[in-house]
Design a protein that fits this description.
Elements: H1 22-45, H2 59-91, H3 96-109, E1 114-124, H4 149-161, E2 166-169, E3 172-173, E4 181-183, E5 186-189, E6 192-194, E7 198-203, H5 206-215, H6 217-229, E8 232-243
Antiparallel strand pairs: 1-7, 1-8, 2-3, 2-7, 4-5, 5-6
Helix pairs in contact: 4-5
C-alpha cells in the first residue's frame, strides 16, 4: 500500500506564465523606431531626391553669391563717387591750397590710389597630410595647419609699424575702419569672402617693411609653425606697384538695441 503523500499528483499542471526577455523588447523597439524614421523621411522628401534637389542651396553658395554682389556694388559705388568728386572739384571754386589739402586727406584716408615700392606677403594653409618636420614637436592638430585671424592681423600690424603708406589685402585697400576677420578657414573683409592663399601688399620702404615683419613677435611665433608643420609663408619685393583706393562705404555701422 503506497503512501498518499508519496503519490504523484494526477490533476492538471498549472499553466506557465510566458515572460518576454529584455532582448526581445529591445529588438522590437529598434524596429519600431526604424519604421518611424523611414516614415518621417518619406514625408519630408515627398518623393524628391534631397541630395540633388537644386532648390536646396548650400550655405557656401549663398555666401559666395552675396560676396560677388558686394563686389559689384563696391565697384559701382566707386565709379559714382569718382564722378561726384570730379564735379565737386570743378564747380566748388576752391583754391589750389584747399584742393591740395583735400587730396592729402584723401590719400591718408586710403580713398586715393597710392604708388610706390611694394612688398607682398603670402600666407597659405599647410598640406592636410602634414607631419612634424622637426624632432621634439607633437603631431599637428587641425588648428596647426590653417591660417588664423591672428596671423593675418600680425602681418597687417607689422606692415603699418614698418611705415606702410597703404596696404591691400587680396584685392581690397584697407582703411582705418577695416576689420580683418576669419570665420572657419575663410577671410571676411568688408562684406566679401576669400579663401587661402592670402596676399597682403604694402607700399613703403621694402627694407623697413621686411625688417618690421622679421621683428614682430607674433610673426616669429608663426614662423615656428612654418618650419615645423609647413604653413605657407612668402615675402616678395614687387618693385613699383599701385594700390587701388578704397571704394566701399565709409560710414560706420553699429548695432542698436531693439525698442
Amino acid at each position: 500500500m503506497s503512501n498518499s503523500a508519496d503519490s504523484p499528483q494526477t490533476g492538471p499542471r498549472p499553466s506557465r506564465v510566458r515572460r518576454l526577455r529584455p532582448a526581445r523588447l529591445l529588438t522590437a523597439a529598434v524596429f519600431a523606431l526604424a519604421g518611424l524614421m523611414f516614415l518621417t523621411s518619406f514625408n519630408t522628401a515627398k518623393g524628391t531626391d534631397i541630395r540633388t534637389d537644386s532648390s536646396l542651396l548650400k550655405l557656401s553658395d549663398l555666401i559666395q553669391e552675396r560676396s560677388r554682389k558686394n563686389k559689384e556694388l563696391d565697384e559701382s559705388d566707386a565709379a559714382l563717387r569718382g564722378s561726384v568728386e570730379g564735379l565737386a572739384r570743378r564747380d566748388d571754386g576752391s583754391g589750389t591750397a584747399q584742393g591740395e589739402k583735400l587730396s592729402g586727406l584723401e590719400k591718408s584716408a586710403g580713398t586715393r590710389k597710392v604708388t610706390g615700392r611694394a612688398v607682398t606677403v603670402t600666407l597659405n594653409d599647410a598640406p592636410p597630410n602634414a607631419t612634424a618636420k622637426l624632432p621634439g614637436y607633437p603631431e599637428p592638430q587641425p588648428d596647426y595647419l590653417v591660417i588664423h585671424q591672428q596671423d593675418l592681423q600680425a602681418v597687417v600690424n607689422a606692415l603699418w609699424h614698418g611705415g606702410a603708406q597703404g596696404i591691400k589685402v587680396m584685392d581690397q585697400r584697407l582703411i582705418s575702419t577695416s576689420a580683418v576677420r576669419c570665420v572657419g578657414n575663410t577671410l571676411i573683409l568688408q562684406g566679401r569672402v576669400y579663401s587661402p592663399p592670402y596676399k597682403i601688399t604694402a607700399v613703403g620702404d621694402p627694407d623697413r617693411l621686411q625688417k618690421a615683419l622679421a621683428d614682430s613677435p607674433a610673426i616669429q611665433n608663426y614662423m615656428v609653425y612654418v618650419n615645423v608643420y609647413g604653413l605657407g609663408w612668402k615675402v616678395t619685393d614687387d618693385g613699383t606697384s599701385t594700390l587701388p583706393g578704397y571704394s566701399g562705404a565709409v560710414d560706420l555701422h553699429y548695432a542698436q538695441p531693439a525698442p
